Amino acid sequence: MLQTRLLETAIEQFGMHGFEGASTREIARASGTAMSSITYHFGSKEGLYLACADYIATRIRERHAPALDLVADLSGIDREAAVEHCLTIIDNFAVIMIDPESANWARFIMREQHSPTEAFERLYHGVMKDMIDGFSALLGRACPDLAPQELRALSMLAFGQALVLRAARASVCRALGTDNLGEEEARLLRARIRVNSLAILTGGNA
Amino acid sequence: MLQTRLLETAIEQFGMHGFEGASTREIARASGTAMSSITYHFGSKEGLYLACADYIATRIRERHAPALDLVADLSGIDREAAVEHCLTIIDNFAVIMIDPESANWARFIMREQHSPTEAFERLYHGVMKDMIDGFSALLGRACPDLAPQELRALSMLAFGQALVLRAARASVCRALGTDNLGEEEARLLRARIRVNSLAILTGGNA
DNA sequence: GTCTATACTACGATAGAC
DNA sequence: GTCTATCGTAGTATAGAC
After folding, report:
1. Does residue A174 contact residue A181 with C-beta atoms inside 8 Å?
2. Which of A185, B4, B55, B111 sits between 20 and 30 A of A92, alpha carbons compared?
3. CA nearest to nucleotide D2 C1': residue
4. Measured distance CA(A52)–CA(A108) in Å, rounded
């Protein structure tokens, strides 16, 4: 599919060089087609950029489907199970942050986090909102004494532990004395995230 | 100082639009000078970019001087004091991540985290290395049972909690239902980070 | 040291053949 | 639906006046 090939190349290029820095000529060339195909299929460079946001949201939603199902129905879940579900979701997120595959669209999203455009709206309402809302609700079962606003803050901080593995990847690698995050490093990091998260959920905020 | 004015404008522009996206013309114009001044003072666009990295490293080092002093001499520090110092440093970092002033150079650094260039070397050896090494050593006093590699992993994860406030700023704001992180949100977030960090240091990893 | 003027390249968009 | 050709604009770098 030409459109898909263009989208995946574009996400890579937009992530690597930014919106202004990426060139439609190069995106087309790397996709094995002519630049005017972008105009034809997406209207303009900006149209392509927004289509990338939708594409990313869909892909993430697919990948997080198990986690979203986990929080879909909270009725009759006890506190211990809620804690365990939280740990699973955070670990799930950590795996994605470690995975090299997340590099391309992570950079795309990071850029939007700093100065959001229409593309951020599509990402947020396409997948982020449901993840944050769902996780906060689940967290409420694990930490029943926290106010709603505190739960939302805690959600973001908990994700932050895993996010750093992508957002500050180069520093993490340096700190661990490695070139990239292989299986050994992944095991170490996920284990620590689990221990930390358990302490947060059962110690400090219980 | 013309050079300083150019550097600060450049950091803003490089952060906002990326290396390729930022234009030397615009940087010069916003600094109130001609574009050829950049060539004269920094050699080229790339020279300006690298000079920005050095400038950022120096600025951060200034700002983190109290924290770096804190970890300079660990002799005769007891465990309780080490925990308290860790909490102070993490809070210090959180304040910087919340501060709007960090936005410009944070974007610059984030870009380098994803695909490091020579500029990352200058940032890392200019300030990051000392911060990570120092904090890991301090953490070793707070959590004496952890192996050195685990301490380094834990350091990065602990910073991650604060980093998310800058790296995923737009999502954090949405989650908290606010347009920006004001005093009220800052108080809430810092309090939670402190509680979480205390739980991590004394509960899960003690 | 800072300016103007200019050479050269690459960009996004569009028109029109097929 | 995909291509080639081309237009107008904006980029970096450089040369040379002052």
Report:
1. no
2. B111
3. A37
4. 9
